[in-house]
Structure formats: C-alpha cells, structure tokens
Amino acid sequence: MSTKKVTVIGLGSLGSALAAALLRTGHDVTVWNRTPEKAEALVAQGATRADTVAEAAAASPVVIVCVFDTEAARELLAPIQAGKAVVNLTSGSPDEARELAAWAASRGVDYLDGAVMAVPAAIGTPDAFVMYSGSREVFDAHRAALDSFGASHFLGEDAGVAEFHDLGLLYAGYATLVGFLNSVAIVGTAGVTARELLPLVTTWLTGMVAYLADVAREVDERDYTDGASSVAINQVALDKIIAASRAAGVSPDLLLPFKELLDRRAADGHARDSASSVIELLRPGIHPE
Q1: Which residues pair with 64 in a beta bridge?
Q2: Which of 28, 79, 169, 193 could join 54 via S-S bond, C-beta 3.0 to 4.6 A?
C-alpha cells in the first residue's frame, strides 16, 4: 500500500537530492545524517530531522539509504525493525547487494536494491532513471516515491541484477568517455578543439547506437557469420589508427586491448566473423563454437 511517509538516511550530495525530490512531490520526509547540519536545508523545505537512525526508521514504512558504501549501509540498517521496507541506493557490487538482501531477510526486513543513473543535479528530471531489483512488493508499494527520482525500472527479484546493469552501463559510459578523449587528442594535433569536434562525434555516435541493434542480435544468437564489420576488416583499420596515432605523438594504449582481442579471434580461425564475436573471449567459462 502506497504511503506518503518516507525516510532518507544519508544526506551526501545524492541523498540530499533524493530527499529534496521527495519533498517536491509532496511526500512527508524524515531525514537523518551523521552530521546533523547537512539536514538544515531540507528541514527548511519541510523535512523532519531525526536525532537517531532508529527514530528516523520508525517514522516511515519505507527507508531509503544512500551512504558511502555497503558496509556503512549495513551498520545503519541494524536498528531497523522487522516489517519495514528498505530501498538501498548505496553504490555497491552485485554480491554485496545479494548479501545485504539476505541479511535483511534474516531480520524480517523487505529489501530492494537500486542503482541511480544520474548526477545529483539531475534527480527528479527526465534525464534521470533508477534501476531496481529485489523485492517486487517494495517496488510496487512505494512506486510513487521512487518515481520522484526519475524513471523507475524493475529488473527482477535477484537483488544483484540492478548492480550488474549498473556495471554494464558504466562500461558503456566509460568507453564513450575515453573514446572521445582519444578523439580529441588525435584531432587536436591538427589544431581542432574539442568543441569543434563534438558535433561530428555526436552524429557519428548516433549511427553507432543504431548499429548496436545488429550487434545485440549477433551476440544473443551467437551467430557472427553475416556481420558487415568483420574481425579482419577491423584488424586492418586499427593497425592504421594505431600507426597514425603514434606518428602524431598520441598514445594508442586505449585501443590496444581491443586489437589484441581481434588478433586472438583471427588466430583462432574467426577472421571472417563479425568483430562482435570478440565477446566470446570476454564471457566467463568455455563456450563451444
């Protein structure tokens, strides 16, 4: 059953943004932080400051935790009584999420894990979304509160699934960032600024995103025979990029691991396969061809 009462524990930049978003959407918010002064701005907006974690948890049926790490979250969850719902938005690993879910279940606490995909300033805007996994009951019962932060996505009852998705999106994000920085470095040798390059990069990446639909199909079906961009073609392309980078005095180090994977696939007899087939060298375990 949905309720307007929500507790937020942890008022760092993200936790404060979460509490502020709840206040903007009309929720009755109780907050707690180790440093009480961090609650002052939220109290001015209508939040209630609790003196202890136990007091904060008692004020609401659902407790949102957003602190430095999983160890801190576990410590702060200790006073929470059976029957409460916990939404843990603390960054952690899939194993940590599963362990904390099991620990909460042993104490009669319903647990939902979440991964926030937004900077604090974007919380509550259309640019923000949060991925959840764990208790479906908690997600459904408190969906109105969770939607205050951004689009809500429930990914499954395995508490670790949201953190796996977080890792996957961060892989894609970091690859985009370092790729752009390398692009700026090489084009900068011709006197081009990052801002001048950006529109062309944006157009190029838009096309790359569309291409990912083909990559996803190949990877899911594990059929790499019809790919338009083969291992061999990309070996030649990367050899040229690496040589040109070195000639310009720009380090090609970010590309070398991918080139190594392509070389391994070619050596294994898969030069004509799609370049996406390198995932077979990344997946855990042994995968028969």
Answers
A1: 8, 87
A2: 79
Q: Which CATH architecture has domain 192-282?
A: Orthogonal Bundle (1.10)
- Of 116, 115, 118, residue with least CA distance to 96: 115
Domain boundaries, the chain: 5-163, 192-282
Instruction: Please write the tens of the pLDDT for every residue from 147-168.
Output: 999 999 999 999 999 999 999 9
User: What's the fold here for domain 5-163?
Assistant: Rossmann fold (3.40.50)
Q: Which amino acid is at 216?
A: A
Per-residue pLDDT reduced to its tens digit, 69-122:
999 999 999 999 999 999 999 999 999 999 999 999 999 999 999 999 999 999
What is the spatial order of strands in the sheet that 5-9 belongs to? Answer: 48-49, 28-32, 5-9, 62-65, 85-88, 110-117, 129-134, 151-154
Residue 3 — very low, low, confident or very high, per pLDDT cuts 50/70/90? low
Token reading at 39: 């609650």
Rounded-to-integer distance, Cα 238 and Cα 105, Å:
51
Q: Are 66 and 89 in contact (CB under 8 A)?
A: yes
